[in-house]
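This is your field. Have a critical look at the following sequence-structure pair:

***
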Amino acid sequence: MSFIIIQKFGGTSLASPDLRGLAADHIIAAVKKGFSPVVVVSAMGRAGNYYATETLIDLALKENDNPDDLTLAFLLACGENISAALLAMLLSKRGYAAVPLTGAMAGIITSYGHLDACIKKVEKKRLYKIIKDKTIPVVAGFQGSNRLGEITTLGRGGSDTTAVALGAALKAQKVEIYTDVSGLMTADPHIVPEAKNISSISYNEILQMASEGAKVIHPRAVETAMEFNVPLVIKNIVKTNKETVIVNNNHHHVFTEPVRKRIVTGITSISRLAQINVSAPLEISQEMFKLLAAANISIDLINLFPEKSFFTIAGEKVQEALEVLQQLKLEGNVTQNLAKVTVIGAGMRGVPGIMARIVAALSRADVQILQTADSHINISCLIHESELNKALRSLHEEFFLEAKRPRRKKKGRQGKKFEPEV
């Protein structure tokens, strides 16, 4: 049996006949290179397209505003099934044997929850037989079945998770994630036209970027890849020379000298956030956070003081959070329409002056900083969402377009140019 690779195609990479044709080209090219491809597909297109997951959710809610989880999962899985069938038909038309498989048919066993299940096991026997028969399996991502034989879905980013789980189970040579952008970028190219391709990146950095708003791959898929040491490559379905290699534990040599020296790897953002400021002693705040967790409200940026606390949540969770506060007879001062920008880079660890440069860049763009947080490899700033685009552009100019950044002259007898602290 030849080396197995996993090729995952996202919804925007399958949204039209031309794009599905390009997907088939990549699969056939892998076969010609001697690989045995296992293909994973998402539902076609974005919200508004006929078979996209968001469109199917809207369709369900028009019929019943509170459908049971199993019935909803049954409907949501249709989008990926359609993609798998169409791509298998196209490959067969071009003379390459292919078979569409649901997640269950591919041996993906999950936990019992129907709408946010976790993959527990991959039963590989059927996939190995298909591969041995020189047939290309085209697997519907985002889905599986539990031990009762009921259909389950994996939640947001589930197709990425499917691809990585199959890569780990089948000991694939690599997992290729095809998207409509040029691999992972230093910033969102739709907002920052000067954004550059990141040629290689560590697991920790890609996990941070995925968690902080980069939409190229889901954090849960990255965590699975880290756990099982699965090599990942993010590729552009159109521009074949643009890709990002996620460096796993066996591929340290991929890092070139310039990559080792870089301080910042990328800048990400998350929109539609809200900040809640609560006046309460710490013991009451502790109880408040327990109740928020029980209500499935995720807390992000947190600052605690002896008599008050403030934190951020997703904007759509504000009303639920206020109901929790009411249980404790607390009032929350809410600021909505906020966004978080995050500067990420493993090279930042132990380097002084990064926060100063971030503050200076945002100040030049007249962006108000409301709250900050940092870890070893990232620094986040909470800002008004209306100022997000100019914040991203200014930060990107500061860290990636240094030649264009205005320089200040150093005061003193020598009159030398001031070199910013790195």
User: Anything to note?
Assistant: Confidence is low (pLDDT under 50) at residues 251-258, 408-422. The two ends are 51 Å apart (CA to CA). The chain has two domains: 4-259, 266-402. Residues 201 and 246 are 5 Å apart (CA to CA).
